[in-house]
Amino acid sequence: MILTQILQPTCVKVPLEGKDKNSVIMELVDLLDENGLIQDKQAVAEAVFTRERTRSTGIGSGIAIPHGKSSAVRELVMALGIASDPIDFDSVDKKPVSIVILLVSPLDQTGPHIQALARISRLMLDEDFKRALENAPSAQAAYDLMSERESR
Known about the structure:
Helix content: 40-55%
CATH superfamily: Mannitol-specific EII, Chain A
Oligomer: single chain
Structural class: alpha/beta
Number of domains: 1
Order of helices and strands: EHHEEEEEHHH
Mean pLDDT: 95
Largest sheet: 6 strands, mixed
Strand content: 15-25%
Shape: globular
Distance between the termini: 13 Å
CATH architecture: 3-Layer(aba) Sandwich
CATH class: Alpha Beta
């Protein structure tokens, strides 16, 4: 799976404006909505927050991957945000996050959802790439980094 086939350049936000977990999640949901990728913003937000209440999607090492499944999307959609000041995300390692990647998939598409989560996790193991992404000066620069890394 190539993430830039899912992530659109207009669904990247650098820097995120939100200063807490909930506002950052809503900021990325809004981005998907503004780009016409979801049919019901409230349903998508509810799906993501419901999943978040089950267990934090702050996976550690400064990364969070909030995600959910909803009938309000036709296909897997993704948004990426980079925080200039790290955000408390109730992460498993208790450290704040700078990179937030939102995934939302249809209720009946488990495969692509799991593949995307696995691909993101693998990408973020590359410390140099992760650091470059955290320091991206703009949304386009962050997208270009993802695109370049995915084309290897």
